[in-house]
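Run log // design_07
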């Protein structure tokens, strides 16, 4: 997994978790949903990069 893509995936996961937490704290369902979606994108990006690593080895 390239370093920049790994950092980008982790960044999306962290930002998503923060948005999700903020949405829950304020009762904003829309923000909670956006946070979940962003976190899921980060997990998907990480899985994609790990899969690429497996096939490159």
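design_07 sequence
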């Amino acid at each position: 997994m390239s370093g920049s893509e790994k950092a980008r995936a982790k960044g999306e996961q962290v930002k998503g978790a923060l948005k999700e937490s903020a949405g829950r704290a304020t009762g904003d369902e829309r923000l909670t949903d956006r946070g979940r979606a962003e976190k899921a994108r980060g997990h998907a990006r990480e899985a994609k990069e790990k899969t690429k690593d497996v096939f490159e080895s």
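Residues 16 and 36 are 6 Å apart (CA to CA).
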